[in-house]
Amino acid sequence: MMYRNHLLFREPNVSLRIRELDKDDEGDYHLSLNIEFHNKTGLVVKKERTVRVTVDVPVSTPVIVKSPSHAVIEDKANVTWTCSVQRGTRVVFQWLRDNVALAPSDRYHFSQNNSTLLISPVQKEDKGNYRCLASNWVTQVQHSRPMDLTVYYGPYNLEVNSGQGLRTGEVFTINPGELVFFECQADSNPPNSYVWISKRHNATQIITEGPRLEVRSYRLAQAEEYLCRAFNNVTQKQDEAQFTLVVASLGTGKEKHTQDAGSVSPLAAITVCSLFVIGCMLLFFLRRSCHPKKVLMNIYNRPFSEQKRPHRSALAGHEDATEDFGIYEFVSIPGKMDSAQASCRSLSRLESIQDMHTTIYDVIRHVPETPSHSLLN
């Protein structure tokens, strides 16, 4: 009777209608049927069914709260994020940082329904823009307003740079009389305070404060060491970068000229090596074609009677004298050919070569159209 205005039961299909559905209407509905048949007296069939009704409330816009609300120091503080909705049932939460979904890790801890996120401890990479997403079966994703997390960190990656002179590792070389500026930079929040220190004769001296250092090279008598120290007043951390400044003449090209010269050096080396190999090959083939020892061995291997036999020509009865024309080596062998001497014009212009056993006077290639009588003799 208490639901007669809220629930409507209709026959004969036994339907049940719930008017103005409310969250309190959620629950199990049990149906019990007793079926009687008119043609069968006393026969009753019982049927029972249970229906589960789930009622979801649309999700409202989520709101996030950060604790603590102020900026935190890395490695020293924890941050708790809480996301809540004013309306909604069975809400599913999700967290984003810089529009990237977050997942559980060693430092990221989520509650059972992801409504709470604990970051312990906070580090530099945790800084950014945080947002919470909420949804359920009957509502599309709702976005919260973004909230920033500020983290104090650093200094990191301290570096000293200069747009002048030539840098090699931690050594800067500048021209005499040149005015040089150095910049000291490091990743830090809040910004660091910088101090420049000069190291001379095992003693240190503070030169100036700030990220910029000005050095006049004419005041340097020799190489000097400098130190840039960065200090974060909030994190109480510091870092140092040391370098050496040398005064020397770099010429007109400075860094670019030096780099270009360095890039050409390998090409010059390859060219020199190639010319050397080609020269060695030419010398090898030249010595192989005109080798005095080879000529001497050919003469010693011939019978002595053949060595002293006069050369036959076509005039002396030889059938074809053109076969005798070619390369001739005139050799004087002590004890065997003391009286053999020859002089002729050499086309190859080879110089006389003195061996411990022989003397090669000349090497010629003479192919005349009509053999001369003097050559045949």
UniProtKB/TrEMBL annotation:
Gene3D superfamilies linked to this entry: Immunoglobulins (2.60.40.10)
TM regions (residue ranges): 267-286
Location(s) in or outside the cell: Cytoplasm; Endomembrane system
Keywords, in A-Z order: Cell cycle, Cytoplasm, Disulfide bond, Glycoprotein, Immunoglobulin domain, Membrane, Signal, Transmembrane, Transmembrane helix
GO cellular component: cytoplasm; endomembrane system
Highest taxon in the source lineage: Eukaryota
Residue ranges annotated for the Ig-like domain, each copy included: 62-150, 155-244
Keyword Ribonucleoprotein: no
Keyword Signal assigned: yes
InterPro entries given in the database record: HEPACAM_domain, Ig-like_dom, Ig-like_dom_sf, Ig-like_fold, Ig_sub, Ig_sub2
Topology relative to the membrane: Single-pass type I membrane protein
Protein's recorded name: HEPACAM family member 2 isoform X2
Organism of this sequence: Parambassis ranga (Indian glassy fish)
